[in-house]
Design a protein that fits this description.
By secondary structure, this protein is mostly beta strands. Helices cover about 0% and strands about 50% of the residues.
Length: about 60
C-alpha cells in the first residue's frame, strides 16, 4: 500500500518554501522553480525543486 505524501506550504520561518515529511520528526524543506527557472509557489507551475534542508521540526 502506498503512503500518502502531504505537501506543506510554509509561511513563517520558511516563507515561500514547501515541506514534506521524510520520517518521524524530520521534514525536507525545498523551493519550487517554474520552467523559466524562477522561484514559484504555484504548484501547477513548478517543474524543478531545490532542496534547502532536512530538519527536525519537533
Amino acid at each position: 500500500m502506498r503512503q500518502k505524501i502531504w505537501l506543506k506550504f510554509l509561511q513563517i520561518h520558511h516563507q515561500g518554501e514547501f515541506a514534506v515529511d521524510v520520517s518521524g520528526n524530520y521534514r525536507m524543506i525545498f523551493e519550487g522553480y517554474d520552467k523559466n527557472d524562477v522561484v514559484s509557489t504555484k504548484k501547477a507551475e513548478i517543474v524543478t525543486v531545490q532542496i534547502i534542508s532536512i530538519e527536525d521540526y519537533h
